Amino acid sequence: MTTKLEYKTNHLTPPGKILREELKARGVSVDSFAEATGIPKKALNALLRGTGELTPEFAQSIATTLGTATSIWLNLERMYQTRRSELAAEEQSRPDLSNQ
Questions:
Q1: How many Å apart are CA 93 and CA 83, to the nearest integer?
Q2: CATH topology of domain 15-87
Q3: Closest Cα partner for 77 from 98, 53, 99, 46?
Q4: How far apart are CA 51 and CA 92, in angstroms?
Q5: Domains of the chain: which residue ranges?
Q6: Residues 66-79: tens digit of each pLDDT
Q7: Fewer CB atoms < 10 Å away: N or C end of the chain?
Q8: What is the greatest pairwise CA distance in the chain?
Q9: 49: left (phi > 0), else alpha (psi -120 to 50), else beta?
């Protein structure tokens, strides 16, 4: 019988943080990237702060501009949202021991 071990981290990395690091590494400003991708600057800033959602359209624009695959950005968003949901569910299922 095989036992499957899973490692889950409580650390969440939104795709915008990865994008921010990539832009920094390439020396690309937010303004020029917003212009190159056609993503509104307000939406791009929200994404880079981790408060905006990475839509399929944004993922396509980012991938085209950076020369990467769209699936990379969509998978990062999917993994982020999935783990965020799991952590929220775990938090809700924990018993409140503070009043005992």
A1: 15
A2: 434 Repressor (Amino-terminal Domain) (1.10.260)
A3: 53
A4: 22
A5: 15-87
A6: 999 999 999 999 99
A7: N
A8: 57
A9: alpha
Query: Which of 67, 37, 35 minimizes the C-alpha distance to 54?
Result: 37
Contact 33, 65 (CB under 8 A): yes
The CA–CA distances, whole Å, from 84 to 12, 27, 29, 96 equal 7, 30, 29, 20
Q: Which residue has the tokens 């020029």?
A: 32
**Could you count the other beta carbons within 10 Å of the beta carbon of residue 55?**
15
Rounded to the nearest 5 degrees, what angle is found at the Cα of 54, between the Cα atoms of 58 and 24?
80
This prediction has a pTM of 0.80
| Residue tagged 């982020």 (tokens) | 80
Handedness of CA 49, 74, 18, 90 (dihedral sign): positive
Cα–Cα distance list, 24 to 10, 21, 71 (Å): 26, 5, 22
* Residue 88: its H or E element: helix 70-93
Tokens of 44: 């791009």
